[in-house]
Design a protein that fits this description.
- The protein has 10 helices and 14 strands.
- The chain has helices at 5-17, 19-25, 42-57, 69-78, 94-118, 168-175, 198-208, 236-244, 252-264, 280-286; strands at 29-34, 61-66, 85-86, 89-90, 123-127, 134-143, 152-165, 179-183, 185-187, 193-195, 213-218, 233-235, 269-274, 292-296.
- The longest helix has 25 residues, at 94-118.
């Protein structure tokens, strides 16, 4: 099957334009939080896996951290376990944590690993328990009540925060040309297991690995202005004003905060990427236009 001369020229143009980006990222680490529609749509799953394999082949080191909230909810519903959320956090008792670990560390993680491997990559699945990767501590929510002298502390069970990260196992895998695929599960000093927000794990991991780029795949085009248009680039001082005037709010706020924390701690840039676009990872990293909002120091 032949293609027209113009089509061939367009393909060659795209490939040559990616060269300076490949050179810039060669030998560097890119941490990608994989979630949203990109994890449930078959075409998007395929394009994501191809992007990750290609990055590794051209000398860029991708590290994948994945979510799995919808898959957890589906299995809990199937077994008749009711889910309660407080301040957006899933209340996680021991039984629920068993389901979370089974879904995140088992079915979801292995599906991603298998998909990458089927396309020629060498992926290895991990959870934060492996190699002492993620040391966690229990998250406590705070509820302000004007009738009390002190805020009420709410225990939501096995929901954790990152206390520390030991990247040794990730470094070993990178050196051997494997692609780490990490489930956001951590363990505390007493051996208790915790479910941790995947954006948070990706951000902390990017800082610890001294990553060149943090990418957060979402179900939105990026950070939007008051008119609903994508803001393609932001600096810290601009973000502060957008939060103050309410432009950045709701579910976008923690993602932007995660990106800010990363760049303040040494990550060169963080991007909130529209994961609903096929090959969004390649388009964001290796083209001029990109498909999201880039946040820089």
């Amino acid at each position: 099957m032949s293609i027209s001369k113009q089509a061939a020229t367009n393909v060659a143009k795209v490939l040559t334009e990616s060269l300076p980006y490949i050179q810039s990222f060669h030998g560097k680490t890119v941490v990608i939080k994989y979630g949203g529609n990109a994890m449930v749509d078959d075409n998007l799953k395929q394009s994501f896996a191809r992007d990750v394999v290609l990055l590794k082949l051209v000398g860029i080191d991708p590290v994948v951290v994945h979510g799995g909230g919808p898959q957890i909810s589906q299995l809990l519903e199937r077994i008749g376990k009711k889910t309660e959320f407080i301040q957006g956090m899933r209340v996680t008792d021991r039984e629920t944590m068993d389901v979370v670990e089974m879904v995140l560390g088992g079915s979801v993680n292995k599906e991603i690993v298998n998909l990458i491997n089927s396309l020629g990559g060498k992926a290895v699945g991990l959870s934060g328990k492996d190699g002492g990767l993620i040391r966690a501590k229990q998250m406590k929510l705070q509820k302000d009540d004007p009738t009390l002298k002190q805020p009420e502390i709410i225990d939501i069970g096995h929901v954790g925060e990152v206390e520390s990260i030991d990247p040794s196992i990730v470094a070993v895998l990178d050196e051997q040309d494997f692609i780490p695929v990490i489930a956001p599960i951590g363990v505390d000093r007493e051996g208790n297991t915790y479910n941790i927000n995947a954006d948070t794990v990706a951000g902390k991991l990017a800082i610890t690995l001294d990553a060149e780029r943090l990418m957060l795949l979402t179900n939105t085009p990026g950070v939007l202005d008051k008119e609903g248009e994508v803001i393609t680039g932001l600096r810290e001082r601009e973000i502060t004003e957008l939060i103050r005037n309410g432009t950045i709010a709701g579910g976008m706020l923690p993602k932007v905060q995660c990106a800010l924390d990363a760049i303040r701690s040494g990550v060169r840039a963080a991007t909130i990427v529209d994961g609903r676009v096929e090959h969004s990872v390649l388009l964001e990293l290796l083209t001029v236009e990109g498909v999201g909002t880039q946040i820089k120091r």
